[in-house]
Amino acid sequence: MSFNRCLDNAYRNASKMDVQSTLRLLQTVIGSVGIFGNFVVCIVIAKVPAMRTLTNAFIFNQAVIDFLGSLLMVLDSNIAIPAVLHRNALIAGIQCFIWDSSVILWVIYVASTLNLVMLTSERYLAIVYPFKYLTYFRKTRATAMLVAVWVSAIGYKGTNVIYRQIVDRACVIASLSTAASLAWGIVTFLVEYLIPLIFMTFCYVHIILQLKKASSTVHAEPSTSQQGDNSMSGSLLRARRNTLKTLFIVFATYTICWLPNQVAFFMFNFGFPLNFNGAFYLISVALVQLNCCINPIIYSFKYKQFQTGVRVLLKPCCPKLAHTREGESVAVTLSHR
Asked: What's the CATH fold of domain 2-334?
């Protein structure tokens, strides 16, 4: 019996190591793709003048956030803290409270969510309330929103360190009181997932209704003198629709990727057992990390303005790839004004 038990324990440990090794490799691949993809997005927006719009400022910030998240993902999955922490208290504190808690990584993940909310807000105001948008939405306001994303994420998620403590030079998960655990679980689920989800769903539903209304106006039978204006309006509407479709896919991807992790953490804070080294939790974290690398892929296949920007950037070395369809560059430039 004792021999069989030893074999069973050895098999479980081997299976656990296989799962963790596989996920580590997966996280490294995902992170590497995210580093490259988000770097390309940043370069295209920074180098192509037509890409420097308020909407793309938020997309640029999203790419910076996801680039940093991808970079830290690769480092975090391949650099583990030692079982016995450093003798120096400061270094031990950094190892446990900063690195092992992944507090910086989770700050970036929350910043990604908040920036997506801000991006949705910008598009909502531009499409549903265009006159107010032109009057009140300036570069200074957009800059303030971008700064608020980072300040809020750091101030809120920096509290992740409360889940770690040092005991006998070992970094262990801290035990919170039942009331504190319940309260933090509810706040986390609401702030990081449910409230952003409800808000963005409301915005996109309202935007879709507004675009349908605008579409019916544009496609009404025009007089001869109005055909030129309606043609430009149609191009602008198509460009805005393309931007909306792209951002809606980004939003849907966020919803799917974040759901397992948020549900797992929510249930954990309500007393349900959760193995932080188990396959389910690690896969849920991998899905959150996948969200960091998938946006550039979405832009490449769906975002016409980004595709045009890439062609413009490649024009000096690849003239054939730099071809832009007639009217496309005008439409994508106007779509965010």
From this structure: Rhopdopsin 7-helix transmembrane proteins (1.20.1070)
